[in-house]
Write a structure and sequence with these properties.
The protein is mainly β and about 210 residues long. It is about 10% helix and about 50% strand. The strands form four sheets. The chain has a four-stranded antiparallel sheet, with no helix packed on it. Strands 5-6-7-8 form a four-stranded antiparallel sheet, with no helix packed on it. Strands 9-10-11-12 form a four-stranded antiparallel sheet, with no helix packed on it. The radius of gyration is 18 Å and the shape is globular.
Length: about 210
Amino acid sequence: YVQSDDFYIDKEKQMVIITDQMKNQALTYDLNTYQHLSTIDLPFYFDSYIQLPDKSFVWYRLLGFKETRDEYYIRITDSTYQNSAYFLEAPFTTSLGLFNGTFYERAEQMHFYMPFSPVVYEVTSQEIKPVYNISFRKHKFPPVDYMRSIVADGATYYDKELLHSGYLAAYSISETDNIITIAYLVDNKMNVDIYNKKDKKSYQNPE
């Protein structure tokens, strides 16, 4: 491989699957002997992915997956990377981004969130459903028309403009059974908010 960006361990089959974004491949190795078992050329590009308990894969791409005339951020395939289903229609797509969409697992449930949207989704092989809608105090995400205009001017301008635009440029989430921690970037400054799920109270760092 050229650039191993992620991996998944299949405990049942005792295999590890490593994805290579540069070559757009999935490489499978024996977990005990480390012997190379197979290399599959993926039929699409992606930014991040996760494998679900039923062995299906969920793929994300900010540039979008094209299905007929529509584009979607999420593509779900079976364990052979075939039989695709598409979710989350994409009103704005780009290869540029300060931060990409992220999958995470909590309490045996898979979740997903992406830049420029306050929604956190629960992910299964059958559906993507919203579970949280995050409030960032007074801060707002950039409008689609604004994003299209700065993307047209290239990567260097995009990063510089977005970081100092006053809009929410990027964020990340960490979740436990009791706490949700959100770090987000506005005007090149990091803010951190904590939400206690038990007492339903938010704790914010001063701006």
